[in-house]
Amino acid sequence: MFGDTPLIMVEDDEALVAAVESLRGAPVVGVDTEADSFHSYQEKVCLVQLSDLKQDYIVDPLKVSDMSPLGEIMQNPDVVKVLHGADYDIVSLKRDFGFQFDNVFDTMISAQFLGFDGVGLADLIRRFFGHKIDKKYQRHDWSKRPLFPEHLDYARGDTHWLPALRELLELFLRRDGRLEAVLEECSIVQEREWQGRVGGEGDFLRVKGSRLLEPADLRVFRCLWEYRDGQARAQNRPSFKLLPDAFLLQIARTKPDSKAAIEKQARKGSSMVRRHGEALLKAVQEGLVDEREIPKPPVNKKARPQRGGPGVDRFLTPLKEWRNARVDRLGVSPVAVANNALLKEIARIAPKDLETLDTIPGIRKWQIRDFGDELLDIVADISENAPATPSTGRKRRRRRRNPDSD
Fold first, then answer.
1. At 401, is the pLDDT very low, low, confident or very high (cuts 50, 70, 90)?
2. CA-to-CA distance for 240 and 38, rounded, in angstroms?
3. Contact indicator for 136, 351 with CB cutoff of 8 Å
4. Are 388 and 360 contacting, i.e. CB atoms less than 8 angstroms apart?
5. Where do the H-state alpha helices sit in 62-205?
6. Deepest of 213, 274, 315, 353, by most Cβ within 10 A of its Cβ?
7. Which pTM does this prediction carry?
């Protein structure tokens, strides 16, 4: 599978310095990580895989005491870092090691902009190299040692092909005139930051659906969440494996007062009630008398802007129809034209010129260049053909019924 390409294991500080020295002159480096997110309370990077055009490297952060030398490669603008679905790897490496990134190339984004049917790494490797990757270790506990040959083969397989894959994808992108757009998307991805657990008092509000709870329910949910978080931390297990979010939200809404009432909301035969029933009842009671102030929700930099203002739907439906027609004509993923969040903002603001369009949150330079005039034409057509507002019609009818107007 890997031919004569050597694999270099990096398991101490000296070996990492030597690897960085070798990689320093490489124009392109494939990068991937393996973590233990399905097995630990606080996920961590357990392996960093690297590949240049000559050899593959597997760096073991659980054995290397100082990962900082590798940061030089990640931040070097003269070295292209090739990743697939770079978002998660980048925020994980920033979180754990403080790395910064420059000159990233994302093969998944590239595949989306090229309109490929399959955009997963396994799809691309099979498409271009005819090799089928076995993903059975995708949820393996990568914090476990020792690593066996099958683990190493799986890990290096995610970067071994990336430098060559980038070269092929770039040729296709240049041909289709999409390379500039992909590079702009990659420059945005490399700025992403970790948005997960930060240890703040408002962390419980990160649970999807929690902000829809009434204040009384939210106080109960906070106590339930704090119990689960403490248990997960003590056992070093992911919180969702102890008690699912949806289960805690349901308990917060219904506030059961007995184990029998909790059992009705759990799956039949579930051990959750047996293990946690008494503690959950106690948390519900604590939540009912909890007088602590509810904190402001944590800021989510990726949160979508809220839709608002009269007449938004009047613009949004034609904008979506335009986007869908463009997707069909170009044969690309919707993200290669415009996502729904952006279309909602365009509908809300209804820009009349390119300068205003350029100020809309989330819009890209390539979107203004490729589609700006079309978007403005759609907004202008809808604005020109806007019907009279209902309030105007009501005022006219009232004037007609006024006898003094004769």
1. very low
2. 9
3. no
4. no
5. 68-75, 86-97, 107-114, 121-129, 149-160, 162-176, 179-189
6. 315
7. 0.85
